[in-house]
Amino acid sequence: MTTTGSGPDNRPATEWLADAVLYQIYPQSFADADGDGIGDFAGIEQRLEHLAWLGVNTVWLNPCFASPFQDAGYDVSDYLTVAPRYGTNDSLARLADSARRHGIRLLLDLVAGHTSDRHPWFTASADDPSDHRYIWAEGDTHPGDGFQPSPGTRPGWYKPNFFPSQPALNFGYARTHPDEPWRQPVDADGPRANRQALRDIMEHWLDLGLSGFRVDMAASLVKDDPGHAESARLWRDMRDWMDKSHPQAALLSEWGDPAVSVPAGFHADFFLQFGAEDDGLKLRSLWNNNTGTVSEGWAPLEPYFGADGTGSLGTFLDGWRTATDAISAAGRGGFVALPTANHDFSRLACGPRTTEQLPAAFAFQLTWPTLPAVYYGDEIGMRYIPDLPEREGSVLGARYNRAGSRTPMQWDATDNAGFSTAAAERLYLPLDPDPARPTVAAQREDPGSLLNLVRRLIALRKSTPELGSQAGVQVLHEGYPFVYLRGGRYLIVVNPRRERSEFTLPEGITSGLTRAQAVEAAGVDVNDDLLTAAGFAYGVFDLGSAGVRVAR
């Protein structure tokens, strides 16, 4: 295989993450090299050229540790061994090395707060009343709070973290109570042992060449923790250790509240479909159109990136400003990450959102001052597939089946879309049945494709500091179209609704337009001070090296 580039540099994570374009791979569904119908490390390695060509430089994999797969690998039975379906520890190390030679860092998904109920730690603890690696309540009376009956000879109940098959590791309680002795303090023997084990696990994989971790359910470790004070102390201690021992390694969180998690020690946190006091409304107000993965607790809303043009950017912008202000005030640095989707949430192409709506979404995501995270397949507009069978714990509710976002990557027009040579019935999940489904091969040949647009936008972001994560942004118009200025030089216009929209540019911009160049644009027209954007239009305009000043 021909490699490209000279590999990532050796800057500390606080520096290289500023230039990161993240890409999430669900390993079961990305590429199958051995023909068993399930993706694997060798398959990912064979497809690194696509990632390098696209321009992403940081990849994180969903959990690939040994597991009974009751929750698609988020139920770990051995933290130090990869699941045989993906390969071996050596093949993962090879993948990390090959990725590095392509200029790509590889991050693992670390399930820190719980294990599988088949982990040797838990099976031993279920038979040993003196073991406090997990949270156990004794007695015949159910203690409430989701506790499950002991499966072993140990009497009492254990606390799960998510599904019953995922017993919570004991990192202590922030608030203890004499009537509930299972509420051990955070400095008790069990929590201290788990902290050391977590560090040992991270050390193991970093020594094998991995570049860091995305931490699953990062806020879940310390229980009953108002304000997450003890959780923050735990992660700050972990970050201090990493900064000293592995300064080039990154620590990203699945917390969903960057205003809290980044000051707590993480390099970055994602806006998610859950998290913070608004239960993920910041991300949902952008993308969620009440189809695909829908929690019954979510109030229906119209997303800003909806064709009807009835959504609002206010929630997202307020949340982003709050997070960036909190990160700045903490003084440690860090980033907000903005995903197109993830393995638990609907893809951009879901329900009524059509392919023609996606370019505007990517124009925004790749020019806004957050770390962009592309979910595999979104770069070609893969669809969320409804009504799939339950697969490895994918169903969370009557309208919430995560399998629709986890279908096989669509590489080409060959059998199984180039994902696998297995018989169709053996695939991890069924393919998109639409004969016109998008593929990487077809879109690479089409200069006007979504894939080529995403590639150009990534290249533009990487070559243009004013469009990166650290340059300033000035919002000129929050409605339709969304208009903002990056680094005082680049004017961005995004109109995600089907109807045309207009905006009168403020004084200062119009003078810059006399020397403006359309760097990447479709459907945006400027006539004197009037900016007109056709339906689903977008544009990136270079106003010239002198830049502009706009009165506030």
From TrEMBL:
This is Oligo-1,6-glucosidase. It comes from the Bacteria. Pfam families: Alpha-amylase. Residues 24-406 form the Glycosyl hydrolase family 13 catalytic domain. Belongs to the glycosyl hydrolase 13 family. GO terms for molecular function: alpha-amylase activity. InterPro entries: GH, GH13_cat_dom, O16G_dom_2. Transmembrane segments: none annotated. It comes from Streptomyces cadmiisoli. One of its GO terms (biological process) is oligosaccharide catabolic process.
